[in-house]
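ESCALATION

Customer reports they have been waiting on this structure for their group meeting. Please prioritize. Original submission:
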Amino acid sequence: MLSLVLVLATLGCWVLSGRALAPNDRITRKVRRIGATDLRRRLGLARRNDEVGRLATTLDEMLARLEATFAQQQAFTAAASHELRTPLTIVQGNLDVLLGRPRRPAEYRKALREMRGEVGRLSDLVEDLLTLARADSGTAQLARDLVALDTVAAAACSDVRPLAQHGGIALELISTPDLLVMGDGQRLRHMLLNLLDNAICYTPPGGMVCVSLEAPGMSAYLRVADTGIGIAPDDVTHIFDRFYRADAARGRASGGAGLGLAIVRWCVEAHGGTIGVESQVGHGTTFTVTLPLALAAEDDEDCPDPHAPAV
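Update from on-call: job pushed to the front of the queue and completed.
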């Protein structure tokens, strides 16, 4: 009798354990069938109100994140390939023309100037792609120095002033001295150059670009305002996306790849700040960068000169 009870108990445990482990087996089989090209599959066990159901829900959420990330990377790769293909096609076309038959010296010079411009565009694009790749992987290097924002703003405005003058655009700088932030002076200067280049690009002749700097509290506010064509409301929420252009044709004509504002946002956030935009079609755009001010100890001999030129 005792033997029969033990046998029945063993069979019962085996049946119960099989039923308990069956969902785990289904999860294992379904996960094994999911590949990088079929991330839309889900486990479908979320309705179970137990540990297995919660595990399945967590795995489904992870799959959804992986699917979104994979789709984003595919779109990024496709857009990058397109941007790289255009200048390469232009260079290849010029080389084919030059090698087709002998040309006059003026024709050689014209073709070489055009190729040099496209090579420069390629170089800038590759550098931007590397910056974003390092930012995504967390390997981007940022200096931690005291930086005077008025010095950075003055240097950036000096860099783009010839471009503004060539386009018939007035450039004004309204600055407050001795606004110090902790960060990377070179990155901050590059960030402001991107904003200024964007403002000048979309401001018609006779317009104005104004850079203002103030600190009413514990944060510095850096604004770049223009009287340009503005941004449509539907585009404002996407302008910081990679490769996004509110006006694709105009963006390509200016040589932009749609990465500048994405780099701007990364740089601002890497410095603990925020960036916002206000725009009205036909009346201009204002970008506002907010950065935390540095609380420097007085008479600290180890601090670098905050008014040293940014490099």
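Sent to customer with the following note: The radius of gyration is 29 Å.
Escalation resolved.
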